[in-house]
Specification:
This protein is mainly alpha-helical. 50% of the residues lie in helices and 11% in strands.
Length: 245
């Protein structure tokens, strides 16, 4: 399948705008277009990754983003999703590791999860019976949450000596149903697994809990069941639980 001349010219102009590499193109004020493209890239990335920007500081941030823009090949028509590609760029280039920012991949994934969660499509309301400490029911969770596993404590406000405090850490990110801000809750590894299984397994809480205990060779106790009941009550409190079946 042959590309039309207009598509070829568009692709060449796109390469010029990203890289500055001269192409056989005749576009009036092309330098202004290139400046506008680079400004849009930088603005979108700064808005998506403010914590990463603050930690890298301006000079290193500019170096990192420059490498990304040079290699970026847009496959996504929605520009607001472009910053997600910065994660795969880092994974391939290992710029963070090479520059002694081993936490960079964690930071990008964490901030993207917050950003994407804020803009995620609203969950359709469902009205089901409430939870009455009965583990023999299937929970219905809405989709406005994500469990993120981190090696470094990116979720903490201060990143001082962050590389000296390796995890793992498990963070529940969720969108508040009242003000729609993204909030977080730190979980134990056990509760992280439980939360994910509750969201994907069409089974009762009791059966899901039993499977987790068996797989991890944990002896079931009254304390564990009470712990899980209290946790589910917390999920209800933050409106993560829509109801029961």
């Amino acid at each position: 399948m042959f590309e039309s001349k207009s598509i070829i010219k568009q692709n060449q102009f796109g390469v010029y705008c990203r890289t500055g590499q001269e192409m056989d193109i005749d576009v009036e004020a092309k330098e202004s277009y290139r400046s506008m493209v680079l400004t849009n890239f930088d603005s979108a990335l700064r808005n998506t990754y403010p914590l990463t920007l603050r930690a890298l500081e301006e000079e290193k941030w500019t170096e990192f983003i420059h490498g990304f823009v040079l290699s970026f090949k847009c496959q996504e028509p929605q520009f607001w999703k472009m910053p997600f590609s910065l994660i795969s760029h880092e994974e391939k280039s290992q710029w963070g590791v090479e520059n002694n920012y081993n936490w960079l991949n964690d930071a990008l994934r964490f901030e993207w999860s917050q950003f994407e969660l804020f803009y995620r499509k609203d969950w359709e309301p469902v009205y089901l019976k409430g939870f009455n400490d009965d583990l023999n029911v299937q929970l219905v969770l809405h989709n406005e949450f994500e469990v993120v596993q981190l090696t470094y404590p990116i979720h903490n406000e201060k990143w001082d000596d962050i590389e000296e405090h390796q995890g793992p850490y498990f963070i529940l990110l969720y969108r508040d149903q009242d003000d729609f801000t993204v909030k977080m809750m730190e979980l134990t590894p056990f509760l992280a697994v439980l939360t994910e299984q509750l969201s994907i397994q069409p089974d009762t809480v009791a059966n899901i809990l039993e499977n987790i205990l068996v797989q991890n060779e944990i002896e079931p106790t009254d304390e564990i069941f009470q712990f899980c009941l209290e946790f589910i009550s917390k999920l209800e409190g933050i409106q993560l639980v829509k109801g029961m079946k």
